[in-house]
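SAMPLE LOG
Freezer: B-3
Tube label: C17
Construct: single chain, 157 aa
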Amino acid sequence: MKALFKALGFEKSLTDKCIKQRRDRLRKITDSFKPYIWVDTEFKRQSQPIFALAFCEHMRYIEFPRTFFLNSIETQLRIAGERAALCYQETGGLLAIWGEIKRFRFYVAKNEAYILDTQGKVVGKYNGSVDNKATLEKDGASVAKIVDKKQTNSGEH
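STRUCTURE (predicted):
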């Protein structure tokens, strides 16, 4: 990039400033929290195989492009609401192994989410992580586990 700026006749100070701005923006994109929607079905494991739950875990998330967080929160909420409503419509309100969709959580930070109803409207806020998550762990062999967290936040359900 420096060679290009030099060939175009830019001063070194301007070149360095432009490169620093670009690096800072890329670092911000790389290091920032990436908003996502978690589909809440109030799932409680009964007899479902843990490996099947871990394999289907991705169904519970709606992701956005890497730079989505650069939009205003109003724009993010509008688009997240549209995506949540579309998910509900496309699935008929049922999420495969996970059950009936009750609501969506649009996470804007690690433990901070907006609660969206099945029509994509904001109905509240949630502070905390995802309630339960099925994962595959490698500890010499593949082992599946599901982590259930107790509901400690009032006003969500």
